[in-house]
Structures are given as structure tokens and as C-alpha cells.
Design a protein that fits this description.
elongated, alpha/beta, three-stranded parallel β-sheet, 10 helices, 255 residues, Rossmann fold, 15% strand, 2 domains
Length: 255
Amino acid sequence: MHKILVMGLPGAGKTTLSKIIARRLGGVHFNADGIRSEISKDLGFSLQDRIEHARRMGWLCDQVVKAGSFAIGDLICPTPETRNAFGPSFVVWLDRIQAGRFEDTNKLFVEPATYDVRVTKEGTAEYWAEKIVEKIRPLFDPKSPTALFIGRWQPLHMGHIELIKEGLERVGQACIAVRDTHGKDERSPFTFHDVNQRIQDALRAYAGRFIVIPVPNISHVFYGRDVGYSIERLSLSEEVESISATLIRSELFVR
């Protein structure tokens, strides 16, 4: 989930923490006051207006997530209704103060029944940002079960992406090996740097769950008995499997 809700009473430190999280994740930060001044000028602070404000901010975050980036919504979200309007998200609750500067908000505020991280008054914003980022974007663990994909990826296309995603969903993390075939023939026009960049961009949503490595031009894979791993062909939809790298290459270059 790349949609993050940073919620809590006014003055709890939501904006400071949100800015640090956005910087660490390379995400987009939406501040409630900023959205009110530019997009939601028609809204007040009644419960219904707060619900609509949360819905609009949730929608903005959804668009960023659809584009493959992290979105951080920084708003009070004082009631279950406003949180539902914001939509499914990774919830960070700043529980650092007992009351904010607005009495009407204090009376309205209901502590969340569920959340992913509860930020207490102990620890700096940098400390909590580190904890939150660790939960959102795990570090690749070389000792955990890992799916191996070997290919030229010339160029990387939707069929490749769907294949790798399937492996990630099944196993948890992946090692994507890029065969060293650049310049060997017209079928390999892209360097490792080009291929790696495309993979990193396409799988941004899975950051921390895959690594990309260069390997020699592997043409055969052999194994002995009792090797401790399985070799399996992943079957995807006919539409995905019909995608042709040759056709894509022909459309990328002028001849």
C-alpha cells in the first residue's frame, strides 16, 4: 500500500513527519491546509465537510499511487467516517498530545481503533520516519526465499513485469538477473544501466523486495538432484503472453 495517512490532532507534528517520510520515499505530500486553500475553498469544518475534504485528499493520493509513487495525506481525520472517506491506506497515528488548539476538533476527535504505526511523544520525527519507512519499504533479505528471473529484458515490457509480479506475490522477493548481451546483435540494443533503470521504475511499488544484477550471457541452466529449489514455468493470460519484445523494439527505433 503506497497511500499513507498521517493523522492526529492539530499540533501533533503531522506535517513535519510527513515531509520527512515523503523525502525518504520520494513520494508526494498533500497537506490538509494547502488543499483547503487551493482545492477545497468551498468546505468548512462541519463533520460532513470534513468527510468531503478527506475524500478529496484520498482521491488525490489515489492518483499518485496509480502513477506508481508514494502519496502521503497529512490531515487530522478526526472520526471513523473521515478515515473511511480517505480510503484504504497505511495509517500513521500521531498520539503525541492530549489536546489540540481547536476545541471543536478536540471534542470531535475519536482515537483510531486500528492503525499501522502509533507515534508517541518519545523519539524525534526522524526516528519515527525511519521506523515507518522500514515497515512500508522493507530491505531486501538475501537469506529469505527468493525467486530468480533470468532474461535479456530487451526491452522490459508489460509481459515481463506481470511475470515478475507473479513471482513476487508467490515467493515474496525476487532476484532479476540481466544477461550481458548488449551489442551482441540487434536484439539487444540496451545497456545494463538502461535495463536496470526500466526495471526499477516499473517495479517501484515493490521497492525493497527485489534486486537487479548483471550476469554473463547465460544460455543453459543445469541442476542436479536434491538441489533444494524448484524450477517452474509461470503461465499468464494469453493477452500478456502475446506481447512481443521484437515488435516493441521495431517501434522504438527508426530504421
